[in-house]
Amino acid sequence: MTRVVAGNWKMHHGPRATRQFFSDFNPDVRPGAVRVAFFPPDVSLRAARESVRILVEFGVQHIHWEDSGAFTGETSAGMAKDAGASLALIGHSERRHVFGETDREVGLKVEAAARAGLVPVVCVGELLEERKAGRLERVLRRQVAAFTAPLGQCDRYLVAYEPVWAIGTGETATPADASEAHAIVRSALGELGGCPILYGGSVKPANAAALMSAPDVDGVLVGGASLDARVFARIVEAAAT
Ligand code: PGA
Known about the structure:
The chain is α/β, with parallel strands linked by helices. It has one domain (4-240): Aldolase class I (TIM Barrel, Alpha-Beta Barrel), CATH 3.20.20. It has eleven helices and eight strands. α1 links the parallel β1 and β2. The radius of gyration is 17 Å and the shape is globular. The two termini are 13 Å apart. The site of 2-phosphoglycolic acid has 13 residues, from β8.
């Protein structure tokens, strides 16, 4: 499987910083060796598409589950597609834990992505207290079960395992931790389990290669280390080797 390296910019890089990023982003990889994706803020999507110099995919960080309506501040899957996104992050831990997004909403959003023809990148992951209490498998299976039915309606999809305790903390899961969780996610997906499963949580150039060589880890979803073009290029290069 071609490895996937995705950058989730979160609330960083407006249009001007986005153009600067892409003027500096030039990873030394053969075309097609790695699938590279970016999730810029919606307001920077156009600048990103206009200034990127290599083949990448773009996605949005968040969609609403309705196709249109009186939902101030929200963007629908169809609008994201129309603006040039082909992917949508769904269920990122910050959406779940900062904004209170529920498993049910995650399922509805996957359904909305399927309707619009957007490729969902659905995120799952346990809290530190859940891991410590031995509930890793139970939590992952519950999160996955909430979106398998709509996932079956999508032509393409990805899943990301992001342990909440490793996101933005500098704390990384070991390659063995990642493999264990990815195997659970794959098994919970059942017959839908042939998709790429990405690891996310404090991925950096120094740990990317080891994580991506672990069994069942098909790529990485990178937050902080995706904001600097040269640093992120090193992660893309690590995926190509
Ligand atoms: P991080 O974020 O790489 O900064 O830990 C990962 C993510 O939230 O997708």
